[in-house]
Amino acid sequence: MESGTGSAILSILAAKAGAKKVYAVEIDREVAKFARENIKKAGFQNIITLIESDVKKVKLKDIDNEKVDVVIAENLSTWQVTEPQIQIMNHINKFLAKKNSTVLPAKIFNYIELVQSQYRFENVIDLRTHYFEFTGIRKSKILSAKKLFEEIDLTRQNSPIVNKKIKVQIDSDGVLNSVRLTSPLQVHGEINFDFSDSLMPPVVFPIKQDIQVSKMMSLN
């Protein structure tokens, strides 16, 4: 099963790799139309079943009453802010996947860093807002080591809400005015993925008040 199939490329690759049955789920009607055309062009319409639906509404009867062996869920965003990855996988694991199914990706690691960011752009305008650290964007000054905030095992049920405190040690002097969030993945086994401009780039957002910090300080 593939959640959020998009162009259906991963479902097609699964079929090419020898999958006997693939369920590709897509909520967007126009995107589903594109996926259906690609599946037909690839000649896998007898193997890939396209389901136009919200994944969280898919029931076992929609996949021929047989739980799946492999789940591909590339509904990814940094710290799961803009994609309901956890809710989707909770539903799939509870109702649609076998107990020991293979899940791609398998784990997400949400990290936080304390940073000093420059919010004056082109020396013309001050814009204190969150931004993505795309290639070419001026990098923040890192003031702390990366701290693991939450490890999410996508083969299990996970709470979509996390409320916790962590302690982060300052490694460099500077003005703390932002936090930097990243979400590297364990795709499968020893295959890992950090980020790219198009998928889960680092996100930097400002804190309410600047804080002058020095090396070896600890902040909660």
From TrEMBL:
Pfam families: PrmA (PF06325). It comes from the Bacteria. GO terms for molecular function: histone methyltransferase activity; protein-arginine N-methyltransferase activity. This is Amino acid adenylation domain protein. InterPro entries: Arg_MeTrfase (IPR025799), SAM-dependent_MTases_sf (IPR029063).
